[in-house]
Amino acid sequence: MKNLPFLIILFFTLPFCKSTKTTSTLPDDEKPIAHEGRLIGFNQNWRFLPPLNSQSLISNIKELKPQIIRYPGGTITHGWNWKTGTFSKPGKNDIVHPIEDLKKLIEATGAQAVFDLDVVNSSADDQIAMLNKAKSLGIEIKFLELGNELYSQIHGYETQFPDGNAYADTVNIWVPKLRKAFPNARIAALHIGKTSKIARQSTWNRETADRIRDIDAFTYHIYLSEGNTVEGRIADFQKAYYNPNNKPIWITEYGSMVSPDREDYLPNLSKLADYIEKLPGVVMVLNHTIIGSNLKHSKLDPTTKGATFTAEGKVYLDRVQHGHRN
User: Fold this and answer.
1) CA-CA distance, 236 to 98, in Å (whole number)?
2) What local confidence, expressed as pLDDT, does residue 323 receive?
3) 217 beta partners
4) Distance between terminal CA atoms of the chain?
5) For residue 80, what are the β-bridge partners?
6) Is residue 87 within 8 Å of residue 80, measured between CB atoms?
7) Which residue(s) pair with 254 in the sheet?
8) How many CA atoms lie within 13 A of 163 on its CB side?
9) Contact 290, 58 (CB under 8 A)
10) CB 230 within 8 A of CB 224
């Protein structure tokens, strides 16, 4: 029994030792859900937003009650000229939207703005100039997102960002400059919201989270695709999720990419929205999109320039009217 004193000390010490292990998985459903501060709104590709001189368009957007709107959108971010309000590869249906239009929409709706910054084709100085212009118009610079889906394999981003470490190195250069210019802004870096067999994507979340020195949040995009059930898509997201320091989460795009003609399209989309809007740690939820280049996935009908709601739009209108908010 020579070790008895040691065992007694160990017995009384262990329960009070703090664990240094960090979690990389989503919190249990049983844990309390913190709704305070959660913002629900829309991602919007601004090249397809009709002119804001239509009162019916403005009225319908107001009925959707967005609390936050993304500017200038997703992939368009890496080709958007904020000085002219145009995309670098314009199409025949593009609408010119100078940054003053962002102010107009914010004033009309009372929404806040999350700015998606171009870290691919622009400099930090250029994007800070854009934010300063927005600030001069009276737009609060509160939420900044560093790029859009740079883990994607279809836009050539792998040349500039061959892995998550390369992206993290860019983040580590941009963030101090943004902090200096806008000390009260929250800044988010990109994570991928699904598992992948592609090496670059499969290691992206861990590499970025472990290498980035200073960040306020991580973004995820969650879309339903053909062959997915809602439950299967959620399970895949949970496998991909990596957040060792429990940073706040921004879902800056979510939606369904399956055919809108399917009978389960709208019920499944609403089920996905329910999951995301109640997920612990999520402080921003943006559905894609208010209005697109065609009827598919739009909330407002582009053929009427937003004067009427689509079937999908009526689902979100119903969600607003029945209190699916904070």
Assistant:
1) 39
2) 77
3) 188
4) 60
5) 87
6) yes
7) 222, 287
8) 10
9) no
10) yes
User: Which one-letter amino acid corresponds to residue 75?
Assistant: T
Count the Cβ atoms, other than its own, within 10 Å of residue 63: 17
Round to whole Å and give the CA distance between 325 and 10: 49
User: HSE of 133 in the Cβ direction (CA atoms, 13 Å)?
Assistant: 16
Structural tokens at position 114: 């999350």
| Nearest one of 155, 172, 252 to 213, comparing CA atoms | 172
Mean pLDDT, contiguous 10-residue spans, the chain (326 residues): 39 32 47 61 97 97 98 97 95 94 98 98 98 98 98 96 98 98 98 98 98 98 95 98 97 96 96 97 98 94 97 97 72
What is the assigned CATH class of domain 36-321? Answer: alpha beta
> Which residue, 151, 159, 150, 72, is CA-closest to 116?
72
Task: Give the closest residue to 169 by CA, choosing from 210, 211, 209, 201.
Answer: 211
The closest alpha carbon to 104, from 50, 183, 158, belongs to 50
Phi-psi region of 187 (alpha: psi -120 to 50; beta: other; left: phi over 0): beta
193 near 240, Cβ under 8 Å? yes
Q: Is the bond into 289 cis (omega within 30 degrees of 0)?
A: yes
* Tokens linked to 314: 């009526």
